[in-house]
Amino acid sequence: MDFKNPMRKFKIVFLGEEAVGKTSIITRFMYDTFDSNYQATIGIDFLAKTMYLDDRTVRLQLWDTAGQERFKALVPAYIRDSAIAIVVYDITNSASFDAVDQWIEDVRAERGDDVVIVLTGNKLDLEDRVISTEKGESKAKELNVIFVETSAKSGANIKQLFKRAVLALPSMEIEEEEEEENKKEDIVQVTPVEEEKDQSTVCWC
Amino acid sequence: MYSSKHNQAQKNGWLHKRGGRIQTWHKRWFVLTGDLLFYYKSPQDSRPTGTIPLAGNNVIRHQDDFRQLHACKFEIIAGSGRDSITSTHDSYMISAESTEDADEWVAAIKRVLYEPYGGGMFGRKLEETMTVEARLGGEYVPILVHRCAKFILEHGINETGIFRLPGQSSRVQALKDTYDCGSQLDISTTEDVHTVASLFKLYLRELPEPVIPFSLFNDAIRASKEIDANPQDGIPKMIELLKRLPKCNYNLLKYICRFLYSISQNSDQNRMTNVNLATVFGPNILRPEAISPHNIIESSNASANFCCALISHQREIFPLTSDEKPPKRLSIVNSAEIAEMCASSKSISKTGGSLFIKSTSPKFEPRGRLGSVPSRLNSGSPLPPDNKLSKKRFNMGLESPRQARKFNAFSAFGDTLEVKKEADMRSGRVSPLIFSTLNDDESTLPAHVRHIRSNSTHFDL
Known about the structure:
The structure holds two protein chains of two kinds. Chain A contains seven helices and six strands; from the N terminus they run E-H-E-E-H-E-H-H-E-H-E-H-H. Chain A has helices at residues 22-31, 75-79, 94-98, 100-111, 133-143, 158-167, 172-184, and strands at 9-15, 44-53, 56-65, 84-90, 116-122, 146-149. Chain A has a six-stranded mixed sheet, sandwiched between helices. Chain A starts with 8 loop residues before the first strand and ends in a 21-residue tail after the last helix. In chain B, the strands form two sheets. Chain B has a seven-stranded antiparallel sheet, with helices on both faces. A seven-stranded antiparallel sheet of chain B has the order 8-14-11-12-13-10-9. Residues 325-338 and 344-461 of chain B have low confidence and may be disordered. Chain B contains 15 helices and 14 strands. The chains are: A alpha/beta, B alpha+beta. Chain A: GO terms for molecular function: GTP binding; GTPase activity.
């Protein structure tokens, strides 16, 4: 497990409501293009890209999910072994912003704090913005996640998005600490379990 | 006596109930029969420990909180004008083992509470819904489906990403609750179209079995592949397959396909092509019984393909039946008349380049005193009356390409006619326009009209 190892892989999942631009962000990052076709993603797509960052080389696996309600039930399975979750909303669509809490909650439920979460407000190029930068920032602060605003169409901030996410991954020092942690795990800890308060001997029905 | 009730029960199972005076939790066997909810210490007991009368009361589903021992709770509360449900309980707090179980119980109780008013339809078998609604004047499809479709056609046909963009989830839930309580009201015109679209999809998704039953999943996928490979051979096979659907499922599927087709006809505005609509709608009408991460991609591709084939070929797959075929009519109006209609009609709304004219005014009916078009073309008949299942679409063309301005008009499901314009329609020049239903066979049109059609570049509604 070494950042300098070019084979080090990280799974990145993209989450967010329909039509916020998850696929477009990935396409911009992967191929530096923007496809103006309006096309809903089916199920889940998978792409991989190697990113060179200062002295590090990381292999990113990008998982693009369909935002449709139908697939929400399956998202936990995809989040499970992810290192980075990019939760996208559309700055011109308040419903997509309101849904952010639920997406982040889903990620936390599955991965706790072992995951880098980036809240991404996309479609900076559009003029009819309804979610201000401040609103996005304060949401990110409240949920303790990284915040970026991007435009997949113009390409603005797309590289920064990935750079910030990767740089926030646990560094080598933390990994050493983790090894220490692992050693501690050999000791079995016994914590008292709260007793059920069901006093079924008394019935008042 | 009570044991026989267990057999007739709408639903039974283990739940936890919180005590009335002393609020401790007890595991009880619950049996829902008629409008009474009985609970027993064990399923073998002949006498219930208690009875909860449901009539006139309400049920609320509390937010799940998995930090608590009793995480998935619902509560039966006294209806308006009452202080308590029974002498021992002001309300009954009940907890289920899982979110799904709690949801099922609440749905079952809501059915008891609100069915007399036409509510409790979410999560209910389509066949049952249709039986219940038949008594309330329902027709071919669930009332909710028709309301949503009508609303979307009236307010959202040109909305970018209709059915793809999500609605506000709190509003969707609120609307669902309103309908579940048996509201017979139309959807408020101030409602966001995406909320209504989400509600539409939610209803379909919550059906215990999708519109295409699980047993036909594989056959349906196979049939849609055959259409992809060779429509001529595939379509008759699809028609055969769909004959195996229960009548109410067939009607609903037909309705949805006709409806989605009319949405896709405006894809230059709403960007929802057949493929896009099929992608977001497919999994709501066709899915395998068990979805896992392993089969999801395959099955969602398959349901999107199936749905796409149905939308694209809806005219061949669902032949018009006598009850939905609008009488053949051809009528003419000119732009002066439209302007007049606009001026006299009570309800006109203008959005971008479109004018929406509510056909409340009799002036809307095209009449036969029109400019340069020969009178034999003019049957003078009014627009067809509102026929819920008929797709009423009107092509509108100009007499000659020289005068060509792009007009599209349609009246779909409701009584609204939309006139879209690309060029200025109020230029004062009188250009005859021709209305005809899309269902009209081209060859039966008078030669003059056919000539106009072929000369016109914009009959591609």
